[in-house]
Each structure stands twice: as C-alpha cells, then as structure tokens.
Amino acid sequence: MCSALAIGLAGCATASASIPGKDVIVVGVKADQPGLGRKENGVFRGFEVDVGYYIARQLGASRVTFKEVRSDNREEKLNEHSVDLVLASYSITPDRATLVTFAGPYYVAHQDVMVRRGETGIRGVRDLAGRKMCQASGSVSTERVVSGLGIRTRLVPGSSYSDCVAKLRRGDVDAVSTGDLVLAGFAAPDLRIVNAPFTDERYGIGMRKGDIDACEAVNRAITTMYQDGTAGWLLRKWFGSSGLKLVEEVPQFEGCS
C-alpha cells in the first residue's frame, strides 16, 4: 500500500494545461517546513511530498517530480506552468479561490500558537494582544488573528515560517501562529505549542484556475487515499509523535470551481 512512497525525485519538467493522464506531473511543495515539506540533501521529504506523490500516481503519472514553492509565489508558479499541482500548507480561502482551482481539502488542520518553552504569558490567541508576532510572507494566518479576531499584535515580518521560528528562538518575536501541522514540524525542546486551536486550516491542492476535470480527479484520489489507509499511515508517520489529535476520516470537500 505505502511502499510506493519511497521517493526522492526532483526535476524540472514544464507543466502543461491538462493534468490527468500526464506521464510526468510536477508538484510544488515547501522546502523549509519540517514534517510537511523539506529539502534535505537534494531530496524533498514530508507529509505533503508523500501525498503529492500518491495523488500524482493516482492521476496516471509514471514519474513525479518536485519543485520548491513559497507562500508568496504559489499562484505564480502555477500560472507560469512551472508546476501542475501545489501542496504547500495552502489554506483554501475565498480570495485564493478566485486565482486558482482548489481540490480537497486533503486535511483540515487547526491554527494554534507556538511560543518559547519558558513563556507563561501566552496561553491562547487573545494573549497575543500587544505581543510581537511573526508575519510570514504570503501567509493568511496572521490576517486571521489581526483582522478576523481583531487582536492588536505587534507584527514582525518574516520571509517564511522557518524564518519566523528562527526569530522566535532569538527572541525577536514572542509567538508564531499558523496551522498546527506546520507548527508540529518545528517542535523542539525549547519551543512549545500552546494547544489552544481557534480556527480551521483547510489545506487544499492548488491547480490552474478552471481545470475542473483535474480537480474532480484529485478529489477522487484523496478519497481513495483515506479509504485505503494511506492517509492515516502518512499522518502517523510524520506527526504520530507530535501529540496532535490526528483526523483520519475523509475531509468534506469544497467543490470544484
């Protein structure tokens, strides 16, 4: 069932308009998010990498290659045909859905807060008022705190969540807030998740706008992935020791548009 997930492919194939049935499918993933997508010694590894491989093979690809994307260039990489699919902690939002077509979600994470181990003044999102919080470029997580909940934090820009966690360790910021799967990947003895989730993060698979056939095919593949046990196996593989309550049932899909 899961032995095919022994992967280590990287490549530079150019994406085309039609995805199902392609011989080579290019998947955009993060390169600096432990647990989800990280490039080590030239090889991409992580939950989203494994899911991307599974989905692409279900769509008929004989070869799956991976390219790095960032939160601030995911749409650009899709629209310039550099990648076919994006799995990169890509939360489905109404604004983003005007730019790309989303399949899924393939997992519903929950936004939480990470602080330094000795921090006692932040027990939940409301405690971020007046505190320094990192704002990762291209991410909507900070917007949920500041605009969605009206919490007045002191925002400090970061180029990525990897950069934000580095700032947290140095004391440049007091907290990092995003989906719990992202935070779990950065878990370390000197850091902790406050374990007070406050919103859902519906992680979708992005593709070029209007590719409904591909979206429906990806949704079928996601369903199969949960039904055959692969999704649960991968969640436990990458996050089983994190302490998070992992959901192994098929998520409710948004619908293709």
From TrEMBL:
It comes from the Bacteria. Keywords: Signal, Transport. GO terms for cellular component: extracellular region; outer membrane-bounded periplasmic space. The keyword Signal applies. The keyword Methyltransferase does not apply. Pfam families: SBP_bac_3. Residues 24-242 form the Solute-binding protein family 3/N-terminal domain. GO terms for biological process: amino acid transport. Coiled coil: none annotated. PANTHER family: ABC TRANSPORTER GLUTAMINE-BINDING PROTEIN GLNH (PTHR30085:SF6), AMINO ACID ABC TRANSPORTER PERMEASE (PTHR30085). Belongs to the bacterial solute-binding protein 3 family. This is Glutamate ABC transporter substrate-binding protein. The lineage of its organism: Bacteria, Bacillati, Actinomycetota, Actinomycetes, Streptosporangiales.
